[in-house]
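Narrative summary of target 7.
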Amino acid sequence: MYMKSVLAASTAMFLAAPAMAEPSAEVLHWWTSGGEAKSVAVLQDQFKAEGGTWTDMPVAGGGGDAAMTALRARVLAGNAPAAVQLKGPAIQEWYEETGLADIGDVAGENGWAEVLPPQLAEHMKCEDQWCAAPVNVHRINWIWGNKQILDANGIAMPTSWDEFNAAAEKLKAAGITPLAHGGQNWQDATVFETLVLGLGGPDFYRAALIDLNPEALTSDTMKQVFDQLRTLRGYVDDNFSGRDWNLATAMVMNGEAAFQIMGDWAKGEFLAAGKVPGTDFVCWPAPGDGYLYNVDSFAFFEVEGEDKQQGQKLLAKLIMGPEFQKVFNLNKGSIPARTDVALDEFDDCAKQSNADMNADAGDGSLLPSYAHGMALRGAQAGAVTDVVTNFFNSDMSSDDAVQQLADAVAATM
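Modeled conformation, tokenized:
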């Protein structure tokens, strides 16, 4: 009789217990182009397969600027999304402003500290607590080339900026646009930082675009950077203004231009179009030493409701899962943030990126991209970019540019 009473009581408690909340997540991101959309769909499918409800919030344009405008509006309205594509110091800035959710239990259970390079792991922490999950590693300082155009004109991928200029002059004389570029400030900044590293080297890059040293900003080396930027401006077609980066990639893909200086998300566009590395296009680290990285990641805002909190934990676990890291990066053109993912299925561009990253991590040449929000906070990065894009779209002299650069940075300090 006693046992029956116990069983009856247990059954009643079970029936009365609330059902476990199904995980849900509203995800804000700016992956809207072909290769990017295909990549984020992988995460969305995995989330749904685990019983989650995914609400997609893609915001196109501006290299993420439009998404950040949308995010701020949501936060001010007291309705932050569960997960937001954020990176670099922006993660810590949002933590300081609004707080972010602590996902340390997920990180601990899944051994994140053991599989992430220390440099990348630090970007994912807010006062030593895990608040974001990395998706990948992009190399910024790549040059992409149309193989048919280069072969037809007897041009090898350049190993110095003088070689690049010589190749561009040859292409220009043949009636071919040497450099595909989009007239958006972050694209100008991408080319600029590639030149800072390529012409000045890692120590100069660190002094100029991480430490913001006034002497580096006004140096003869920085003048040479602006001189080369002016030269590159002469290799861009007249219709570049306002062009999205993926449309510039399509110019190379379709034989309308020979080169593009862009991060390896450009490769994702080539692959999404069925193009083959080494056959249809070639990749080459931009001239100079060092590796500029950009890490895509998702930060988790504090949300109410068990379904949303469970959704954040599931999303964090999936993002750092070995299978997702492999499949996502095969689509995106980047390499896994995890160091234990086999690269057997990756192309030669990715394998070179991974080898260079590991080598440069040991000698101080693995450096965060300023143009893509990894090295500087928003005010300082914006000041640099404003000067760069004004220079690119005017007849400003290099002497004036370096002085304006130093003045603009000083005004933000």
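DSSP finds 19 helices and 15 strands in the chain.
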